Amino acid sequence: MSGGWNTIESDAGVFTYLIEKLGVKDVQFDELITLEPDELRRLGDIYGVIFLFKYPTGERPSETPRDGTFDYEAANDIFFAAQTIQNACGTQALLSVLLNKDGEVDIGNELRDFKAFSAEFPPDLRGETLSNSDLIREVHNSFARSSPFIDETQRAATEDDDVYHFIAYTSINGKLYELDGLQPAPISHGDCTVPDFPDKVIPVLQRRIARYPPSEIRFNLLACVRDLRIRAREIGDQEALEAEERKRTEWLWENALRRHNFVGFVGELLKVVVKDKLAQGEDAYNKWVEESNAKTRKRAEARRHQAGADDG
User: Fold this and answer.
1) Do 235 and 137 reside in the same domain of the chain?
2) Are residues 289 and 158 in the same domain?
């Protein structure tokens, strides 16, 4: 196992099974399609949201946030960790929600021990402790997509790259906090009770998205909520329960695929196909190659036309 942290996807199935492997019980993530308070409320008990956005690689933290105010005292009273390593921000964001909901949520013995151990640390040391946790790193890396071509732990981003960053929003002690490990402290967005959270967080997210050009659509929002299967059982909604169980089955299948490298399989399959075509004779083989090349050129041309249309 590499000592580094690999990139994980902003995916409800990845995050849900990641926290289950860390020992969290009766919690899941659900993707939000629209920025509407009612969409959040329909999910029942909400613990927080995880927001993924394109991060300007040249941007540096400032003394004053563009929205809200830094709460340096809260950095010592709640779980807030500085991000000290690349690629860990997804797991750090979900822990920023869950470790501040201990009591509302059963976070399990491992995370509870980690929180207690790091409780008296300042944010930078807390971040180092998180980054050096073998358990959290290994669980995180187990959900990284397999790639035979690059080692994502060895490559630093440049200003020409698209870099994406995860941050968390949650209600703690009657305040709406933005928890971003690249900032010097939690950012307070004012008073916010747990029932108020959907109405308070959506305008903050809308203001953040408004900073980007209208053409930028690469955002993702995941809600951290009580397991929706439990809610469906409590209200006797069999249809919703079956839908959630199907979703879990799909997540398990997708997570299994992420862990496998299919390049070897594709290579062996190609050998079999080529052998079969050669057995049909040289003319049949050459015709097959020409047809394949023509289809490839046609697809490439279609992509160029589509890209031109999008740019217009």
Assistant:
1) yes
2) no
Average pLDDT, the chain: 84
Q: Residue by residue, what is the 3-state secondary structure of the chain?
A: CCCCCCCCCCCHHHHHHHHHHCCCECEEEEECCCCCHHHHHCCCCEEEEEEEEECCCCCCCCCCCCCCEECCCHHHHCCCCCCCCCCCHHHHHHHHHHCCCECCEECHHHHHHHHHHHCCCCHHHHHHHHHCCHHHHHHHHCCCCCCCCCCCCCCCCCCCCCCEEEEEEEEECCEEEEECCCCCCCEEEEECCCCCHHHHHHHHHHHHHCCCCCCCCCCEEEEEEECHHHHHHHHCCHHHHHHHHHHHHHHHHHHHHHCCCCHHHHHHHHHHHHHHHHHCCHHHHHHHHHHHHHHHHHHHHHHHHHHHHHHC
Note the pTM of the prediction, 2 decimals: 0.78
Among 89, 140, 189, 224, the active-site one is: 89
165 is catalytic: yes
Q: Active site includes 189?
A: no
Number of domains in the chain: 2
Catalytic member of 140, 165, 192, 224: 165
Percent of the chain with pLDDT over 90: 56
Residues 102 and 245 in one domain: yes
CATH number at residue 28: 3.40.532.10
**pLDDT tens-digit profile of 19-47?**
999 999 999 999 998 999 999 999 999 99
The domain of 272 spans 264-311
Q: Are residues 102 and 197 in the same domain?
A: yes
